[in-house]
Each structure stands twice: as C-alpha cells, then as structure tokens.
Amino acid sequence: MSTFSRNIKLMRKRKKRTQDDVAFAMDIKRSTLSGYENDVAQPSVETLIAFSKYFNLAIDTLLKIDLGKLPESQLSQIERGYDTYIKGSQIRVLATTVDQDNNENIELVNEKAKAGYRTGYADPEYLKVLPTFQMPFLSRERKYRTFQISGDSMLPVPHGSWVTGEFIQNWRTIRSQQPYIILTVEDGVVFKIVENKLEERQQLRLHSLNPLYEPYYIDAKDIREVWKFVHYISSEVPEPNTPKEQILDAVKKLESDVRAIQTKLDI
C-alpha cells in the first residue's frame, strides 16, 4: 500500500470521519475514495490538491511522509497546523519511547549520557536504555525530554540542574530571547537563550545568562534538535546574579594585582 493511501486513511480516522463524510465534503464518490485508500486508484493532481486542503497538509507530506510512523506528539503538531513542508522547513522525525499504556515517556539524559546522545539521539535502541518518567501536569499531546546541564554559563540556573524541554519540530516558530535546549553537531547539548536569525542568515545566535560568556552563532545545518524550555529541577537554591559591573571591577582588580606582582618580580 502506498504512503498516500495509508496517510489519507489514517487522517480520516483521526478526524473521526467516515468515508461518506469525506467523500461528501470533497464532492467525490465514496467508492472513489475507497479506491484511493485501498491503493487501487491513483489520484489526479486536482484530487491531491483537494486532499491537501481538506486535511490541511502539504502534498509532499501526504506523498512522502509515513504519518503512521510518527509519534503522537508530532502528529498532534501537524494537526495543529505545524506541517513543516507547508512552513518550508525539513521534517524531523523524532525517535521516542512509550510506557505500557502507550503514553510517550519523558526520557532523562544525564551528564554521562550526553556524550552518547550526540550520536544516538535518533536511535530507538539508544533511547530505550535511558531512564524514563512521567509528569502528569504536562500535555500528552506534546513531546518532552529532560537534560542535565553542566557548567556556569546559565547561572543562576545551577550546574547539575535537570532542564525539561518541549520538542520543536518547526524551527521557524523559535521565539527570540527565550531559553531553548539545542543539540548541536560539535558541542552536543547546550542550554541557551536563543535569538532566531534563520530567516536572515540561516543561523541561531546563542546567549548565556552569565555575562562572562560571549554570544555566538551556530548554523542551522549544525543543529540536530531544538527543545523549548519548560522548567528545571535543582537541589540547590539559585544564587543571585552578580552585576556585570561588579564582575568587571573584580577582573580589573585581578589584572592590577597581577601587574603589581610582575613589577616586583622584575625588580
């Protein structure tokens, strides 16, 4: 059976529509629709356009993407209008795990697992070995994953915190000045404030909360996943940020002390 046949049958059932309902709405015979769903008839270009409008899906999606293999979180995004072919970006099929009731898990990527995640993020076998849990207050129609962050670039979020993100399929929806978890080719998992520059230069500009770290650009081609920040969990109480002026004064004092020591050594 073709991808197109499987897709229109799947989407019809998800909309809880009968063949009679869809045939009436599209002004075609029910037997004709049945032929498309059973792959015994080939749709014309005009018919493909009609299906695209009815399901609010791009023709490329109907013909090329096996929607039945996508996790529920991605299907829900597509049904809400985030079809990446319509938006003009590449579709990203997310590997995921489910519990015994077929609910999507929240996988836990700890500090030790982050190195392997950089290459194993799309491998279902790798994801199966990660710890998983559920958070009942989060939407079941969206996909979440939790990452342990390291370092002090995002202070006051402490080192070792667990940061949960919501999977972003369409990167054009990334909002500037908001925190995201980014999986990159070179640096692996990073947690940053993002400035969306995809339209202008096919890049994201990543900022740290800690003013000692300079912002930098990353090319879209070097990004593998984007997760929108939802919340973080930490056993530490965050310390207030030191004002930038105080940090600069401390650095200048340190430089002055070093010069004084060098002067004494030269005497």
Brief summary:
The protein is of the alpha+beta class. It contains 11 helices and 9 strands.
**Average predicted confidence as pLDDT:** 86
Sheet-strand content, in percent, reads 15-25%
Radius of gyration (CA) equals 25 Å
Sheet with the most strands: spatial strand order: 2-1-3-4-9-5-6-7-8
CATH level 1 name of the largest domain:
Mainly Beta
What structural class do helix, strand and pairing data support?
A: alpha+beta
Describe this structure in words.
The protein is of the alpha+beta class and 267 residues long. It has eleven helices and nine strands. The chain has a nine-stranded mixed sheet with strand order 2-1-3-4-9-5-6-7-8.
Strand and helix map with partners:
Elements: H1 3-14, H2 19-26, H3 30-37, H4 45-55, H5 59-64, H6 72-79, H7 84-87, E1 106-109, H8 114-120, H9 124-128, E2 132-133, E3 144-148, E4 162-167, E5 178-184, E6 188-197, H10 198-201, E7 203-207, E8 216-219, E9 223-233, H11 244-266
Parallel strand pairs: 1-3
Antiparallel strand pairs: 1-2, 3-4, 4-9, 5-6, 5-9, 6-7, 7-8
Helix pairs in contact: 2-3
